[in-house]
Amino acid sequence: MLDYHIHTSLSDDSETPYYEMLDQACRLGLKEIAITDHHDPDYNDPDYPFQLDFDKYHMMLESAIMDYHKKINVKRGLELGIQKTCLDKCTACAKAYPYDFIIGSFHMSCGLTIDMPEFYEGRSGLEIQESFYKYMLECLKEYNDYSVIGHINIVDRYQHLFRPGEPLNPPEVMEIIRAILEVVIYNGKGIEFNTSSFRYKTPITVPSPEILKAYKELGGEIITLGSDAHSPDYIAYNFKYAIDMLESLGFKYVSSFKEMKPEFIKISHL
Ligand SMILES: [Zn+2]
Ligand SMILES: [Zn+2]
């Protein structure tokens, strides 16, 4: 098993040192893990600036690789917060170090953080959805320095919380999502199955089965499995559910990454 989305205390929203995360991954028998701490160049919350100290981060990654090489394969990862205002900064970060794997995530959209109620006020559910996914599409038409899109429908999870009952991914929104997936596939990138939604106890999976179906229909093959764990308890959390869903939709492989290139692992060999 492998987990391609974990955070350590170098992310503003985690307090767990990397060795505690890796010790737990070893205890669980994982073969490979990608450390993917947050860097969100234009994030605007002073309580959570999400600005990585890259010298420290890169030193930590190298120590982790060296100290654990007999126990678990550690990949040099990063979770990069994409916004239209900082595409150049994102590229500069992505190129400044030999990462194996970069998650491109949208934690803000049109200047607003998407986990705050303000994002969901004063407009209909459809307007919220259209704005979030159109923004993502516009960014991804220009930006290409990532491996997979992180938690692609994260807006659905929060919308479900702040605006319960509003429809998620109606046909006009699925059109935009399909256009996003086409760009992702055309550029040789992928998406992740992010199991963090299970720990928030929502019925929304990330991605939804509809998005996974569309991805498959369009020829998408690259999918990573990520728990988005910020503490040891959630490493590889509910991966069985994710794998069963992927298999039921006809996916046969999940991806690992080396030097930004995908490799494919048979689900039956996990
Ligand atoms: Zn994220
Ligand atoms: Zn994350």
Question: What are the main properties of this structure?
Answer:
270 residues; binds zinc ion; single chain; TIM Barrel; alpha/beta; eight-stranded parallel β-sheet; 19% strand; two-stranded antiparallel ribbon
Plain-language structure description:
- By secondary structure, this protein is of the alpha/beta class.
- A hairpin with a 2-residue loop joins strand 6 (108-109) and strand 7.
- It has a single domain, classed as Alpha-Beta Barrel (TIM Barrel).
- Helices cover 37% and strands 19% of the residues.
- One zinc ion is lined by residues 79, 105, 107, 150-151.
What order do the helices and strands come in, and which of them pair?
Layout: E1 2-6, H1 18-27, E2 32-35, E3 38-39, H2 54-68, E4 73-81, H3 87-95, E5 101-105, E6 108-109, E7 112-113, H4 125-142, E8 148-149, H5 154-162, H6 171-186, E9 190-194, H7 196-199, H8 209-217, E10 223-226, H9 239-248, E11 253-258, E12 261-266
Bound molecules: zinc ion (ZN) (2 copies).
One zinc ion is lined by residues 5, 7, 79, 228.
Overall structural class, as computed from helix and strand content, comes to: alpha/beta
- Give the DSSP E fraction (strand runs of 2 or more residues): 15-25%
Share of helical residues: 25-40%
How far apart lie the N and C ends? 5 Å
- Please name the CATH architecture: Alpha-Beta Barrel
Q: What small molecules does the structure contain?
A: zinc ion
Rounded radius of gyration (Å): 17 Å
